[in-house]
Amino acid sequence: MKLVAAILLCLAASALCEKRIINGESAPLYSHPYIVSLEGLVDSFFFTYWKHICGGSLIDRQWVLTAAHCVEGMGKSKLRVKLGVITLGETNNYQQQVAISQVTVHGQYSSTASGIPNDIALLKLSQLAVLNKNVQIAQLASAGSSFYNTECVLAGWGKQNEGHTLVDATELHEVNITKISTAECRREWPGEAITDKHICVHDASPPAGQRPSGCMGDSGGPMMCGPRHNILAGVTSWGERTCSGTFPSVYTRVSAYLGWIRNNGPEL
Q1: Span of the secretion signal (predicted)?
Q2: Which helix H or strand E contains 260, and what residues bound it?
Q3: Which of 46, 165, 219, 241 has the CA that lies 20 to 30 A from 201?
């Protein structure tokens, strides 16, 4: 049975999400300078603390693109981003911590509708990002971009497979995976409303248990395509709960939202 995990495996009170890249590898230094770590403020019984909850992409010196489900129900005061992060919990010469001054969720986003439509959000930074070797702006996919049957790369932080156990990881990881057609994605997800505003990746060639997947995340993080994996094509949205790689992972298609991004965020 196909179990859709709308990437909403979040703690009920705080909406903090699970994050995983399955069967990935450590990302080389400087290889994903556009990726950000989105942190949420966790209120525990005894104290509060900041926790990495999702990924995102820097698309302008003052704007980050992420998934709507990552910030649903969370005010700007309980969110912040870290730029230039390589290893969670460690500082480096490139890293910047920035507060959020504005959160904009797509007006037609629905966490309960079939296909989790319009799972996209914009975060306005409280100050301009300082660009450096490990902090750069992502190039958005142009209108009508397909990337069909090309290899794309997913990146993020989160749990890793060690045998049959998922363990926490702090290093940035990446995985290469092939973009499939919308028609193929619909065939694999017959009970879900897959539209042209989704973009899907899948690789069924490795044996079961070794298939790459962007399972449960890294929610909100980037799907990069193009000849040098330098074009932001998708925002991590949803997949299957088992994280087996049996079925495609589904992303919000960035090129379908260029008008919305322009109207609500930076000028493109």
Answers
A1: 1-17
A2: helix 258-264
A3: 165
Same domain, 145 and 242: yes
Q: Provide the CATH number for the domain around residue 60.
A: 2.40.10.10
133 and 143 both lie in a single domain: no
Q: Annotated catalytic, 60?
A: no
Q: Is 150 exposed, middle or buried (0-12, 13-18, 19+ CB in 10 A)?
A: middle
Annotated catalytic residue within 37, 57, 119, 203: 119
SS3 state of residue 188: helix
CB-CB contact of 236 with 156 (8 Å): yes
Give the tens place of pLDDT for each residue, 163-212.
555 455 688 888 888 899 999 999 999 989 999 999 998 875 544 444 44
Q: Which residue of the set 52, 69, 202, 229 is catalytic?
A: 69
Let me know if 57 is a catalytic residue: no
Same domain, 127 and 162: no
